[in-house]
Amino acid sequence: MPLPPNAASTTPDRPWSPTSWRSFRADQQPDYPDPAAAEAVVAAIAKLPPLVTSGEVETLKRQLAEAARGERFLLQGGDCAESFDACDSGHTTALLKILLQMSLVLTHGSRKRIIRVGRFAGQYAKPRSNPMETKDGTTLPSYRGDIVNRVGFTSVDRVPDPMLLLRGYERSALTLNFIRALVDGGFADLHHPDYWDLDFVRHSPLAADYQRIVESIGESLRFMETLAGSEVGQINRVDFYTSHEGLVLLYEQAQTRQVPRRTGWYDLSTHFPWIGVRTATRDSAHVEYFRGIANPIGVKVGPETSSELLAWLIETLDPHQEPGRLALIHRFGAHKIAKCLPPLLQTVKRMGRTVLWSCDPMHGNTETVVPAEGDWAGKQVKTRKFMHILAELEQAFEIHRNEGTTLGGVHLEVTGENVTECTGGARGLSEVDLSKAYVSQVDPRLNYEQALEMAMLIARRAAGVGRR
Ligand code: PEP
Ligand code: CO
């Protein structure tokens, strides 16, 4: 669909509709060869039921407001990009298990309730720094996620196909249905953390620490139930919320609804959409779309985010200073956070705002390495080092403490599977090991051992974070 460049300007009192973004510059959108076919698919999705409800969205917003005040802690994690092929029970249960285990460790360490948000049931679209990709002398459009085009390296695979929007909606519904059924069926019951065991518990150097935490939580639960004389109703039920980058605006638009007895519009494709760093720009179509929806929203901020841009984003996206509305997810890299984060914290303080600050220690720490030996010797491989991820997080806690602000969450790329995509961690994964089980089509994820280890290390830090 041809879009006018920078045709309009976003101001908070300008009229908004689910389609008003179309008069703004929309970056990173699929260039469909047949725009009418894309409109037909959007109309079809618009008729289908929403994936989440406005009641759930509002409950999450209240919880995020508590996290912004230091009373809860947000754990947001999952794949960089979900794939249609991995929409199966094994992948989903492994991811739920690792998120549950991490949240158990974090609750134990921080003494706070954890909000669990998956990067799932819709994380199918990827922004790309380079619109084209070259392999062995052939140049083709980049892969933009399963909801846009196909990963195979042929010119046919790389043509954006609007039917994939519908397939993505369906896969999201299947994933969410399975997650809801597992949770309702007692899979996430805190009385049975043994259900969530991954191999980790048997083989990891940290297994004994983890077992101690599980036993101690079990004892606390039994103690409270003895005191209360019944099951601790609120505590034994665990919820998951969904999130994804709201990148393909036609997809988000299709699920944007008004609901009876509530004012405003909700993006009911997910509970908690976020704007990526490449599209969180002045007068972008993404900011225009997001300013009009009632969901809690995340905005990624990075080294390129100036204080002026941040102030404009806050004024535009949260003009009414609604508690829980805005999460700022910072992602600088271990070498830049000390310089880049303090000015942004100071800007928000000067504005007198309370936002939820969350740290994404993944996206500023991506690097390309060339293993010296092994199957991938001499090849370029995208990876992240465990110690850089941890170093960024540790600095984030420290910087927030020094500035008197609260780090209320973490945003991680993790999988419950035994992949070899990030190096380091307790088992000392090396560059030579990367070829053993590298699955991600886009960014490298922490595997289950690395993820749990990260949770154990964060738990100690999160304990020191209280009310401001
Ligand atoms: C992501 O979260 O996968 C992503 C692309 O992040 P960012 O916009 O921060 O680069
Ligand atoms: Co990513």
Distance between the termini: 47 Å
Architecture (CATH level 2) name: Alpha-Beta Barrel
H/I helix tally = 13
How would you classify the helix and strand content by structural class?
A: alpha/beta
Q: Would you report the number of β strands?
A: 14
Overall radius of gyration: 22 Å
Helices and strands, in order, run as: HHEHEEEHHHHEHEEEHEHEHEEEHEH
Q: Which fold name fills CATH's third level, the topology? A: TIM Barrel
**CATH class (first level) name:** Alpha Beta
Bound small-molecule species: phosphoenolpyruvate, cobalt (II) ion
Q: What is the mean pLDDT? A: 91
% residues in beta strands: 5-15%
Spans where pLDDT lies below 50 across 5 or more residues: 1-7
What does this structure look like?
With 468 residues, the chain is α/β, with parallel strands linked by helices. The chain has one domain (20-187, 237-467): TIM Barrel (Alpha-Beta Barrel), CATH 3.20.20. 37% of the residues lie in helices and 13% in strands. It contains 13 helices and 14 strands. The chain has helices at 35-47, 54-68, 89-110, 163-184, 200-203, 207-228, 233-236, 249-254, 285-291, 307-317, 337-350, 386-403, 448-463; strands spanning 72-78, 113-119, 132-135, 138-141, 241-242, 256-258, 265-267, 274-275, 297-301, 326-330, 356-359, 367-369, 381-383, 407-413. The chain has an eight-stranded parallel sheet, sandwiched between helices. A two-stranded antiparallel ribbon has the order 3-4. Strand 3 (132-135) and strand 4 form a beta hairpin. Helix 3 runs parallel beside helix 13, helix 11 (337-350) packs parallel to helix 12 (386-403) and helix 12 packs parallel to helix 13 (448-463). The model is unreliable at 1-7 (pLDDT under 50). Phosphoenolpyruvate is lined by residues 80, 127, 245, 276-278, 300, 331, 363, 443.
